[in-house]
Specification:
alpha/beta; 367 residues; globular; 10 strands
Amino acid sequence: MKNYLNFELDIKNLENELEKLKDPYNKEGLSEVDTKKISNIQIEIDSKLNKIYSNLNPWQKTQVARHEDRPKSKFFIDNLFEDFISMSGDRLYGEDNSVITGFARFNNQSVLVIGQEKGEDLDSRIERNFGMMRPEGYRKSIRLMKLADKFNIPIIIFVDTPGAYPGVGAEERGQAEAIARSIECSMELKVPTISIIIGEGGSGGAIALASSSKVIMLENAIYSVISPEGCATILWRDPKKTLEAATAMKLSSKDLLSLNIIDEVIEEPLGGAHRDKNLILQKVKLSIEKNLSEFTSLSREDVYNRRKEKFLKMGRSKGFITSSNSEDSLSMRTSSFFNFLNKIKRFKIYIFSAVIVLFLLIFYFIF
């Protein structure tokens, strides 16, 4: 049974009508299939899909990113990789089923695969904790990323989470520290890392696994520091203002590509990735092949430095300060105007004293 979003009701009605026409054993008994009418309805469906999906607003894109039928990490892992060997446990506390990790082969090349998994039905979603990782999940990922780095194995990560799990137990076991350590580990790796945001890229739970050499998004995926509902509740005190929040956060792939936060957008089939999973599978495979090939001629130090420079450049291309060619430090180059203001602040006591003395002299000679 297909699931439809609230802005797809016309498509739902047309597809229901199409299914009835394709079934010769309808309620009126055996009947002839009207191929011409079927063809016309299919054209109408494609036309409506094109009209709707070419004009999605940020909140509608969020809904598509959360679609129940959208391909999950397990789908990509099962169909893109060979000889997958699952690795479990963080060697400190336990196993986290919300993240699938293991070594596999991609085009006869050894890779480490990490995938945040939401689950396909209610039982699997509960088992996977709806894709919300606990500290042991991040520590498991860190353990395996360090192992991959030791043996010079590229890392491919599928990101799909509403955020890290905010439960009491997770906080007691050091959720924030685990996320920070994961980001730190990702930035220190000297092997190529490719993160693909296939659905939701929510909060620090996504950033922990998306601090990579290449960050790629599916066309209708989202990537943000907070959910639109959470942002609307904080800023507008109204969780219903999701459209305003989603628009302000610039969480769509198109916006993030223009801001140089991500490196590539993979175009989805008409109507979203869930409508043609085989096609999106092929596109993701081609993207991974292309991006891995970019690193074949680079040394370990070059891989590390390219990742470092990429993240240091973020946020430097817009605003009052022009971008700097030197990316060796986190300090920003300031303009002459701001340098002048800083000098005034530094010598403000002397300037204030001089103004007082001048004022007293003027007062003395006049009166």
